[in-house]
Amino acid sequence: MLAHEPYPSPLDYHDLLRKHGTAAIAESIFSDWSLPLVQQYEKRIARAAEYRAEEQARRELRDITIGEPVAEFESDSVPEYYVATATFSETLHAKYSIVVGRKGTGKTAALYALTDHLLSDPRNHVCTIKPVGYELEGLLAILRKELSRAEKGYLVESFWKFLLYTELAKSAYDHLLGKADYYVRTPAELALCEFVEQYRTLITPEFSTRLETTVGQLHGLSDVSVGGSGQRVKISELLHNEMLAKLRVLLGEVLQDKTKVAVMVDNLDKAWNPNGDLSLLSDLLFGLLSVSRRVAEEFGRNASGLSRVNLFFVLFLRSDIYAAMLEFAKERDKLPARLILWNDAELLKRVIEERFVKSGADVASPAEVWERYFAATVLGIPSWEYIAQCILPRPRDLIFLVKSSLQFAVNRGHTKVEEKDIRDGEVEYSRFALNSLIVEAIVKIPRVQDLLMHFVQSAELVTEQDIASRAKSAGMLEADKEMVIEWLVRLTFIGFETAPSRFEFLYDEQDLRKLEAMARKTSDETTNGLRRFCIHPAFHAFLEIGSNRATAPGQMVISL
């Protein structure tokens, strides 16, 4: 309260009254009184604005969706943020390709992206073959019978040719059935539909069912006592080669106007058993590779009565299967393999950046993702470098770790992924990586889970004697030591010491023998023949692996 002097102040508000003689004094008294209130109000406004900004940042972080680690779980979304590599471009323009990669490297994602790209042009046709739960043991049993090599080759090629022709016919038939009711089919399309309906039991079932039925029919070969031409005639009858000749004519007439007709085959690894007869399995898959090329050539020729079709094939194979097949290949240099490798950290980094951007991240460029949404460092290392060091270099693993870290950050109400979120996400990822390894290894090393648990709180560097001791504790035989070491290397659990204090992990199966030789040479020169190995950082967090290295990670562990 203000009053001009002189003014006698009543007792009831004596302490609240201030007297002034001039306007300047009155203004000074008011300023001294109001300034703390204004400052307090401004602080409240600033805190409210800061809270709103933090809440907005938390909402942005909650809204970030980077997809699933497994491509099968998001087949519709993968093409939106797929990182097109040189392998993708080469495959798209090649007539015939074998796309080779380890589990989790993105083979199925590449299939979805290729399919989406091709189908964006209605002048293309795509036939995708993804058999689920099929079994080739029945056919392998037939191949073990007393058949000449030529007859086995003819059987395998005829078998795959039947399946490819009928699958292509089924896809064309399904495409026609999916057209609008007002669509008027051409005479060629009507003829194809009538043909498919006539042979419905041979063409329309799912690929896996059709495969099993075909194998069942081939068991009739055991009743044929004649060899040579007699066997071939019987195979021709059982696999309906006469029907396939008519089908080739009809498919040519229906598909001749298509710019591209793509046949893409995935999930071939489902029937692969590393404990089985690798020679026969390789013959079987080589037969598919051979037939695929031959079918593409057959459709590409302008023969009498046959229309030309621009057909091309893409086959997706796991790298360990491909490496095993190469052991039996006569002309391995002629196989058109295109490897999917993610050893380039900058390429792998793009996987996350593209997914953040497509999810609506508030950034001007993909490179800003790390500054905007992640803590600057983890244990003193830039966040991206830390993440790249502690994963197996595959999109699946990177997505799992970042997704897990994001979940921790959102649950804790953070505005960005903090260091603790990444460290906790690393533990979840490490558990995931170990479980994936166990699933992959259980066929070859039945007690692999017990073995891996004996590495809990192990040192990061181990010798072959350390591994043998742990294998023995897990109930394995001393004689199995080399087999155990080889498979732990193949599964990237451990890496070879290829030079003093330099360790390399096997990311390409074809490099196994080379790395083994380098490791032997290094051990002979430095440790009297005792090999040393490094446990991959991907498994450190869950197994609580400790460091016993004398050098920094970047100086020691090198990824091929």
Task: Describe the structure concisely.
Helices cover 54% and strands 11% of the residues. By secondary structure, the chain is α/β, with parallel strands linked by helices. A hairpin with a 2-residue loop joins β11 (494-499) and β12.
Task: Tell me what you see in this structure.
The protein is of the alpha/beta class. The chain has four domains: 2-63; 86-339, no CATH class; 345-438, Helicase, Ruva Protein, domain 3; 442-559, no CATH class. Helix content is 54%, strand content 11%. It is built from 24 helices and 14 strands. The protein has helices at 23-63, 78-81, 86-93, 107-119, 137-143, 149-177, 187-198, 200-203, 207-218, 229-238, 241-255, 278-300, 319-326, 345-358, 369-373, 383-389, 395-411, 419-441, 448-453, 464-473, 481-490, 512-526, 540-543, 553-556, and strands at residues 2-4, 18-20, 96-101, 124-129, 260-265, 311-318, 337-339, 377-378, 381-382, 461-463, 494-499, 502-505, 532-535, 557-559. The protein has a five-stranded parallel sheet, with helices on both faces. Strands 10-13-11-12-14 form a five-stranded mixed sheet. It has a two-stranded parallel sheet with strand order 1-2. α6 (149-177) runs parallel beside α10 (229-238). The longest helix is centred in the N-terminal third of the chain and has 41 residues, at 23-63. The N and C termini lie far apart (80 Å). 34% of the residues are buried. Mean pLDDT is 85; it is low at 550-560.
